[in-house]
Structure prediction request, 271 residues.
Amino acid sequence: MAAPKMNKPAPYLPGAEPFFFPGGDTGCLCLHGFTASPAEVRWLGEHLRDCGHTVYGQRLAGHGTDPTHLARTTWQDWYASALDGYHLLRQVCQSVVVIGHSMGGLLALLLAAEVQIAGVAALAAPLRFSSRLMARANLVKYPLPYTNQPDRSSLPQIIRDEQARRGEPARGRVRYDRWSTAAVAQLFELSRRAESQLSQVTAPLLLVYSRGDVTAVVEQSDAIAWGVSSPTIQRHILDHSGHILTQDVEREQVFTWVADFVTTIANPKRT
Prediction:
């Protein structure tokens, strides 16, 4: 009797693999955003590697494979992925700085509230959502399990141009265009959880937002800064970028700000 066929696990999307760059005693955990992949923060990770740090780009549960996988995950699964990355770096580094973009920024703040980290950088973290559909996604997921969300902005071409310049395959954004409504509901729950824990954040904090971002508006940095208990808060505002700060036109400025923040933590006597 023939053995039953097993469903083959979905492979990573091309470019969605996690990355690890060994370096110095300060570890940098880079967390990507919702429906995205480690590719979203890889250039930032390479910059931090070139500054001498150990860097790990974690692939969050359900991301970088198939949109149906994301539909089966919860915000706790994403947090567990981030926590795995933190503990991996703690094994090889004296201290860990968590750097998160968008949803990754929410996870970074939540990690900072619950484990001992040396510093946290939240880049365009959407602490609150203006869309009422976000709050209703838990109900809408039944009649509308998926929506098509292609990126029709100029960003994919900006990314392809930079990928070509770097000698990389010109893939554009490595993310899902088909969004799970159930996962959107989980993102909303994550934002509520992160906001409720802000007062527990005591690590040095870096906030970077852009005036051109309609997803995480600049005023959200005020809400985070007012809510945390961090004694040191650095805030920077960009003028021309959209939401994906780590890949848009001002990415090099973002890399510099993050690297300076990490260097300050790694070498406190220089401050």
Observations:
- Residues 121 and 258 are 7 Å apart (CA to CA).
